[in-house]
Amino acid sequence: TGGVTTLDPGYKNTGSCESAITFLNGEEGILRYRGYSIEELADKASFLEVAFLLIFGELPNQEQLSKFAHDIKEQSVVDDDIKKILDAFPKSAHPMGVLSSLTSALTAFNPSSVNVDSEEAMYKTVVKIMGKFPVLVAWTMRKQKGLPLDYGDNSLGYVENVLKMMFKKPNEEYTQNPILVNALDKLLILHADHEQNCSTSTVRIVGSSHAGLFASLSAGISALWGPLHGGANQAVLEMLEAIKEDGGDTKKFMAKAKDKEDPFRLMGFGHRVYKNFDPRAKIIKKAADEVLADLGVEDPVLDIAKGLAAEALSDDYFVKRKLYPNVDFYSGIIYRSMGIPVEMFTVMFALGRLPGWIAQWREMRLRKEPIGRPRQIYIGETHRPFKEISKR
Ligand code: SDX
């Protein structure tokens, strides 16, 4: 399999795990969901099909997909009091903090969601969060802009209605001219799972104490928020904008990224596992070109991004350290072409990662994994006698 095949029996309580959901090979740039290549899924499947695949293990047939979509729509209503919690946030609140809070608050309004002791109860909880999460995502953005909140149009598809709830354009914009819908669908697929990354490990370890799914997801959203993880897609756009404002001098920023005295890192570059190209970045880069061309948009930051990537490919510091563009490097350019504000980019990452988090949490509970308990190597003081304060 090219991956890890056996783990030290002691791994059981360390947060590492066995999983049958996603396979990735960092050296060869391979990523597969339940055995299907990310390239094929991004090209041929819809986000809802991929969500079903990740969560339940098989691509759905038409009847299963229609039922999944119907059950999700039925569960998309959010308790009205959630709006009061949303109203309590200042406009300056970062959308990831708002989303994490609202996701955790869902438990209060859906107490039965904590019970997943039967397949039926688990399925109910899954479709509840699949239905309500896109609403929270759209409301988080509109609240920040002081715009009215609603549920879009249930006659639209899952991804179409995300854009409808966010931007409220006429349905034809999404059904007759699906450029943005197709681009968002592909982006959500590419972000849907990535085995035991920081936020997924967080969801699994919080869930291993038998905390509910919504509380576990809330913790995962907080982990994803960090600029070294999902927050990188916002940081990439801010970096590209800074380079543009600075006259487009990429060499200056490359030098900063290589300067060990300078905490600045080239955002969107490097990866814990991919020591070759990130297969998702290749697909997103191509999609960015296509979307901007289809929309007739000239975005100078795309050219700056390409310039940076080309420079890094021939720069010894980056080549020696195997630092290549990752999933976050080009995604923001597409989100921006959709009119999504930069502070919402990581929220869009969370929307894509939702089915992966759910799948991993469900797998952990179905396999009855023990509570996560990472161990440590103690490097502190050896035993010493108490010292009275007068002697300190
Ligand atoms: C995601 O894990 C996942 O799967 C995550 C993710 C997912 O789908 O869930 O793929 C999503 O989080 C992608 C990563 C997004 N983050 C960024 O783009 C932030 C910028 N990248 C880095 O901060 C960094 O590359 C990390 C955090 C991604 C990885 O950090 P590591 O593991 O500490 O990097 P490393 O050990 O590979 O570093 C080796 C060397 C170090 O220098 P030396 O000590 O050898 O001199 O490379 C340097 C690092 O300082 N380095 C960078 C760099 N990334 C690593 N130098 C400049 N710019 C960078 N971006």
TrEMBL record:
<keyword id="KW-0808">Transferase</keyword>
<comment type="similarity">
    <text>Belongs to the citrate synthase family.</text>
</comment>
<dbReference type="InterPro" id="IPR010953">
    <property type="entry name" value="Citrate_synthase_typ-I"/>
</dbReference>
<feature type="active site">
    <location>
        <position position="328"/>
    </location>
</feature>
<keyword id="KW-0012">Acyltransferase</keyword>
<dbReference type="GO" id="GO:0006099">
    <property type="term" value="P:tricarboxylic acid cycle"/>
</dbReference>
<dbReference type="Pfam" id="PF00285">
    <property type="entry name" value="Citrate_synt"/>
</dbReference>
<dbReference type="InterPro" id="IPR016142">
    <property type="entry name" value="Citrate_synth-like_lrg_a-sub"/>
</dbReference>
<keyword id="KW-0816">Tricarboxylic acid cycle</keyword>
<protein>
    <recommendedName>
        <fullName>Citrate synthase</fullName>
    </recommendedName>
</protein>
<dbReference type="InterPro" id="IPR002020">
    <property type="entry name" value="Citrate_synthase"/>
</dbReference>
<dbReference type="InterPro" id="IPR016143">
    <property type="entry name" value="Citrate_synth-like_sm_a-sub"/>
</dbReference>
<dbReference type="InterPro" id="IPR019810">
    <property type="entry name" value="Citrate_synthase_AS"/>
</dbReference>
<dbReference type="GO" id="GO:0005737">
    <property type="term" value="C:cytoplasm"/>
</dbReference>
<feature type="active site">
    <location>
        <position position="271"/>
    </location>
</feature>
<dbReference type="InterPro" id="IPR036969">
    <property type="entry name" value="Citrate_synthase_sf"/>
</dbReference>
<dbReference type="GO" id="GO:0036440">
    <property type="term" value="F:citrate synthase activity"/>
</dbReference>
<comment type="pathway">
    <text>Carbohydrate metabolism; tricarboxylic acid cycle; isocitrate from oxaloacetate: step 1/2.</text>
</comment>
<dbReference type="InterPro" id="IPR024176">
    <property type="entry name" value="Citrate_synthase_bac-typ"/>
</dbReference>
